[in-house]
Hints:
- By secondary structure, the protein is an alpha/beta fold.
- 42% of the residues lie in helices and 17% in strands.
- The protein has a seven-stranded mixed beta sheet with strand order 4-3-2-5-6-9-7. A two-stranded antiparallel ribbon has the order 1-8.
- It is elongated, with a radius of gyration of 22 Å.
- The mean pLDDT is 94.
Amino acid sequence: MDLCDARTIKDIMTMFGLTFRKEFGQNFLTDKGVVADIAVSCDTGSTKTVLEIGAGCGSLTHELAQRYEKVVAIEIDRGLIPLLKYTLSEHKNVELVNADVMKTDIGGLLHEDFERGGVSVCANLPYYITTPILLELLGSGLPFDCITVMIQSEVADRLCASAGSRDYGSVTAYLNYFGTCKKLFNVPAGKFLPPPKVDSTVVRIDMYKDKPYKPKDEKLFFRTIRAAFEQRRKTLPNALSAGISELPKEMLTEAIVSCGFAPTVRGETLSTGDFCRLSDVISDMIAENGNK
């Protein structure tokens, strides 16, 4: 059964009385080479278990099951579960979970797999919920080896952007706290059924085992990043004063200057490491201010 053949996919969908559901961002890959390349890309050399988000008709799941000891495939569309049991019947190392990944206890689901070690994420993410899923995975604190995902090319540009570039934003700075992101290859819209309106890019996030940035107050660190980009056209002192109310603008400006930046600097020029240093200074100022 060729799960990358458009006619086969249509026939199987018809067999189970299913249609492509836009609300779930269902665009199934029709290129065997691309599917194989994605499956290979999530291997860190120690990967034993792969968490797949959005199994679709099972083309990527099939490739993953051939390469790794275990695949846990989460699929939100209840109608696709009988289809997946049919298309993946030969694979005894696939666990199908009908659930919304945003409402799933991933740590509990993969508890034994994390104990064995070597867990990676691999997914063709729906465009409409790409960023929330990535933020959820990154912020979960779970010890993933890497996260390999196919996403809208425009989003890939943002995730892999450098500080100071047009595409650099809060998501980029946040991601860089947890790991490094790299573009692997592009996938034209014509490689999907039905074809989306935009092209896609496969990226891989290699998670830090030991984060290089260790802010004194992680929540304040995240707040600093968020505040810096919520009003990115404003200078950093003005942007921070709207998001960090514990200090007056004058003290926030002092904190910025003490880190070696001009008071006219904008948040989009600061790297993740810069935000860590700045949030530490702000943390110390808040503590000192509170003790007066």
